[in-house]
Design a protein that fits this description.
The protein is an alpha+beta fold and 248 residues long. It is built from seven helices and six strands. Helix 2 runs antiparallel to helix 3. The longest helix has 48 residues.
Amino acid sequence: MPQTPQNPELLDGKLDRATDAEYAAVSTSAVFALIFSLAGPAAFLAVPLIALPVLGLALGIAADRKIRRSRGVVTGRRIALAAIAIGAILSVAAAAHHSIAWFRERQVLTGLETRAYAIADDVLNERYDKVYGMIPEEFRKRQGTRGQFQARLGASFRGGGALVSRSLMSLQILPPNPDGTVIAPAELRVELERRELDVTIWFKESDGKWDLVGVAAQETLDSLAKFPAATPPQTNVEMSPGIKKGRP
C-alpha cells in the first residue's frame, strides 16, 4: 500500500515549498520589483524618475499574485510585499514633493509676472527713477548711473507713441548658475503706435526674495521693417557691460 506522506497537506496540493530547495523558486518579478522600489528615492530628483517606485509597486503586485497562485512552487512573497510597501510609499511621497514644488513655483512666477507688468508700465510712463531705485546697489553698477539708465531705456521708447498692447512672451526660473545664482527673466512684447519692442526684465532670487536686477528694451526686427522712419539709434542691445546671453 502506498505510504501516506507525513505532511497531510501534500494530498491537497497546498504545500508551501518555500523551504524546499528541490521545488521552490524565488520569483524573478519580486526581485526586480524590490530593486526598482529601492531605487525609488531617485524619484525626488526629477519627475520622470517617479516611474521607478511605480514600476516597483506594479511588479510587486504582479509578483505577489503569481506567488499566491503557484501554491508554493514559487516563493519570494515577502520580497514582493516589501517592494509593494516601499514602492507605494516612495511613489506617493515623490509625487507630493513635486506637486508642492510645482505649486510654489507657479506662485513665484505669478508674482513675478505681476511685477514685470508693473515695471513695464513704470518705464512706459517714464518713471525711471522708481525703477532704478528698485535695483539693489550691487546691480546698479551694471546699469550705469541713474542718468545712463534713463537715457538707455528712454532711447528705445522715445518717439514710439502711445501704448497699443503689451503681453508676456516668456517667464521662467532658469537653472542655478555655477555660483548658485538663480535668475528669472521675464520677456514682454510692447507694441506702441510707431514701434514694437522686446522688453526683458531680470529678477534674481536672494534669501527667498526676488530682486529686480536689470531692465533692457530692444526694437524687434519686424518693427525695424515696418517703421523705418521712426527707428531710434539702437543703444540698448545689452542691458549693461558684462551682461551676456540674457543673464545679469
